[in-house]
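Q: What residues go here?
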């Protein structure tokens, strides 16, 4: 992965119950850093959805600690 301003973490997980289920955790300093990352992927023509077996479930969380 390239170094990105505002990027804190990419962590990939695989379900222990179903090896076809994955979760990707990404952490950014703020919404602006996330938007810059998404713009970079679009510029490169990367669409990770084509690798999926169905629509992705996207959730956003507020960091508490």
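A:
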């Amino acid at each position: 992965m390239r170094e990105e301003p505002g990027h804190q973490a990419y962590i990939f997980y695989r379900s222990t119950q179903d090896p076809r289920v994955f979760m990707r955790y990404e952490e950014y300093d703020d919404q602006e850093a996330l938007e810059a990352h998404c713009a970079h992927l679009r510029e490169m023509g990367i669409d990770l959805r084509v690798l999926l077996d169905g629509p992705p479930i996207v959730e956003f969380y507020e960091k508490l600690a």
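A: Context that may help when evaluating the design: Residues 29 and 38 are 14 Å apart (CA to CA). The radius of gyration is 13 Å.
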